[in-house]
Write a structure and sequence with these properties.
Layout lengths: L14 H7 L2 H4 L3 H17 L5 H19 L12 H13 L1 H4 L8 H36 L5 E6 L2 E7 H26 L1 E2 L15 H7 L4 E2 L3 H6 L2 H27 L7 E2 L18 H25 L13 H23 L2 E2 L1 H8 L6 H12 L3 H18 L8 H7 L6 H6 L1 H7 L8 H18 L2
Parallel strand pairs: 3-4
Antiparallel strand pairs: 1-2, 5-6
Helix pairs in contact: 3-4, 3-7, 3-9, 4-5, 7-8, 7-11, 7-13, 7-20, 8-11, 8-20, 11-12, 11-13, 12-13, 15-16
The structure holds arginine.
The site of arginine (ARG) has 10 residues, from helix 7.
Enzyme class: lyase
Pfam families: ASL_C2, Lyase_1
Main location: cytoplasm
Length: about 475
């Protein structure tokens, strides 16, 4: 079989080379972008007088037919055609004739073609993933709205720290995912430039109109340096990083869902629809969805590290190493899309066991800091001393088998006679939460502000 680049060769390729070199098996995923790019290019060639208008129209008609064949499953992808670019061009030539089909590649190289296709793919997927992140934030926000008065322990070092509301805890994740959303949008804006017309690496002597192609494909403008345009994959790396960070956040949330659904915590009940059973232990109900998301995070990080490493040592401009850019991105995109959907759906059907959360608050002396703050505020005691006195109260509570919030005045005064009756109020769990009215705090007043911020953000971005 004659290759498109056969001219200077006198021997046929080894079959080993053909299979090793080909990317068609995975880059066929880019057929939509490839055909859209070729149509925009052909239109521009016609408008610029490089091709006749009629020729340009005929090429476009042919490209539409190729697309139809691919979408109806009639198209035969063959290893010997190497990649999506040559597969489409070859079929086009069969449909409209070799003479005209061969003109489409005027003023273009596969180097700028693949840079365009892959960039279009990353831009599209950035938008889709951003929308899924938005849906997840909406789910978290809905949970937050209905759990302002649900008390739960806030943790540091996985030890009970201070009482917070479930609303507040969910909002923490909402804000993480809000930043992830904003990162996706800013990547999209930065990368929305068209590389086509860079040709192999140095531009082209043909009198092309790059801005026309860019506008036709929905870009905001064109990339500025052809060598950079065909040889960097930072747009794909940004997407891989953005997905990695989404997974960092999702994985932490999933880790908590796994802990919370254990019999040690019993804070939540993951619905049967999103739980799995054990093949041997009939009683088991496992949080596989959350575990899988936590697990996929490893692969997603690997894809980022993989492409960073591919790119780090290659000289300008295009090198075949760069064909290794796609599979990891396809994999991370798929992981992000499936995980974001199922995480949101699972959360919607998760039951929060408020009584158990409250019960958990009653151990671990969650309001101890409030007593120290009280001593500072009401008794003008230096914070370090207040910390020490409170520590003694905690030790006393421990010795009595009580929580600090359950000590009576007499017991408190046996540690420090200056402690007054109002300290008992301060030690109450709800009051501890409500005392934290600082901006960004867990009191309902502060949580309302945060809910308002997420609400406003959602309204701005949800269509
Ligand atoms: N399949 C190639 C890739 O994915 C397309 C670009 C090939 N360019 C070249 N000069 N061989 O990178």
């Amino acid at each position: 079989m004659q290759k498109m680049w056969q001219g200077r060769f006198s021997a046929d390729s080894s079959e080993l080379l053909e299979a090793f070199n080909a990317s068609i098996e995975f880059d066929k995923e880019l057929y939509r972008q490839d055909i859209a790019g070729s149509k925009a290019h052909a239109t521009m060639l016609g408008n610029s007088g490089i091709l006749d208008k009629e020729q340009s129209k005929e090429i476009i008609r042919g490209l539409d037919l190729v697309k139809e064949e691919i979408e109806s499953g009639k198209f035969e992808f063959r290893t010997e055609d190497e990649d999506i670019h040559m597969s489409v061009e070859k079929r086009l030539s069969q449909i409209i004739g070799k003479e005209l089909g061969g003109k489409l590649h005027t003023a273009r190289s596969r180097n700028d073609q693949v840079a365009l296709d892959f960039r279009l793919f990353c831009q599209d997927e950035t938008k889709s993933i951003a929308n899924l992140v938005l849906n997840l934030i909406q789910t978290l926000n809905n949970i937050a709205k209905s759990h302002k008065d649900t008390l739960m322990p806030g943790f540091t070092h996985l030890q009970h720290a201070q009482p917070v509301s479930l609303s507040y805890h969910m909002l923490a994740y909402a804000f993480m995912f809000k930043r992830d959303f904003e990162r996706l949008l800013s990547s999209h804006a930065r990368n929305n430039l068209c590389p086509l017309g860079s040709a192999a690496l140095a531009g082209t002597p043909h009198n092309i109109n790059r801005n026309e192609v860019a506008a036709a494909l929905g870009f905001d403008g064109i990339t500025q340096n052809a060598m950079d345009s065909v040889s960097d994959r930072d747009f794909a790396l940004e997407l891989l990083f953005n997905i990695s960070l989404i997974f960092t956040h999702a994985s932490r949330l999933c880790e908590e869902l796994i802990l919370w659904s254990s019999s040690e915590f019993k804070y939540i009940n993951i619905s049967d629809t999103f739980s799995t059973g054990s093949s041997i232990m009939p009683q088991k109900k496992n949080p596989d969805v959350a575990e899988l998301i936590r697990g996929k995070t490893g692969r997603v990080y690997g894809n980022l590290m993989g492409l960073l490493t591919v790119m780090k040592g290659i000289p300008l401009a295009y090198n075949k190493d760069m064909q290794e850019d796609k599979e990891g991105v396809f994999d991370s995109v798929k992981a992000a899309k499936t995980s974001l959907v199922i995480l949101s759906e699972m959360l919607k059907t998760t039951e929060f066991l408020e009584k158990n959360m409250l019960k958990a608050c009653q151990s671990g002396h969650l309001s101890a800091t409030d007593l120290a703050d009280y001593l500072v505020r009401e008794q003008n005691v230096p914070f370090r001393e207040a910390h020490f006195i409170t520590g003694r109260c905690v030790a006393m509570a421990e010795s009595l088998g009580k929580d600090i919030s359950e000590l009576n005045l007499e017991e408190l005064q046996s540690v420090d006679k200056d402690i007054k009756a109002d300290a008992l109020e301060v030690l109450k769990l709800v009051n501890s939460k409500e005392a934290r009215k600082s901006l960004g705090g867990t009191s309902n007043q502060s949580v309302e502000i945060q809910l308002g911020q997420i609400e406003e953000f959602l309204q701005t971005h949800l269509k």
